[in-house]
Amino acid sequence: MLAAAAAGMFLYGVYAVFAGIADLLFIGALEWWANLWGIFAGAILALAAVFVRISLPGGLALAVAGLLGLQSISLHNDSLYYGQLLWTQAARAGFSILLVALAWYGWEPIPGGKLPEEQ
């Protein structure tokens, strides 16, 4: 579960970075600050995915911060792209909740998954 959560977070973060760069340089549908916000939040999420994968303390909190950053900028972007907010925001929130739940239940605070007294 942890590997699936980390892969999903990493791919979502990389997608946000590339989408922001593409819009910033070529498409120009959004303001420059919205693109930079998406790029920054996506980079935070991609970095946090690595921390989540190795079960580094604070990695899941950083991932939640990246997911919330992407969710908050999507409030602005979705109204410009789609003209609606409910279903796009619900889908993003559901995907984020799924990723965090997978990471939470797959978390291994100690490599190998056993406490020192159990080994």
The biggest beta sheet is recorded as: none
Rounded to an integer, what's the Rg over CA atoms?
Answer: 16 Å
Low-confidence stretches: none
Gross geometry: elongated
Describe the structure in brief.
The chain is an all-alpha fold and 119 residues long. The protein has helices at residues 2-27, 32-53, 59-81, 86-106.
Describe the structure.
With 119 residues, this protein is mainly alpha-helical. The protein has one domain (2-107). It has helices at 2-27, 32-53, 59-81, 86-106. The protein is elongated and about 55 Å long. The protein starts with a helix and ends in a 13-residue tail after the last helix.
List keywords for this structure.
4 helices, elongated, mainly alpha, 119 residues
Helix and strand arrangement:
Layout (H helix, E strand, L loop, with lengths): L1 H26 L4 H22 L5 H23 L4 H21 L13
Helix pairs in contact: 1-2, 1-4, 2-3, 3-4
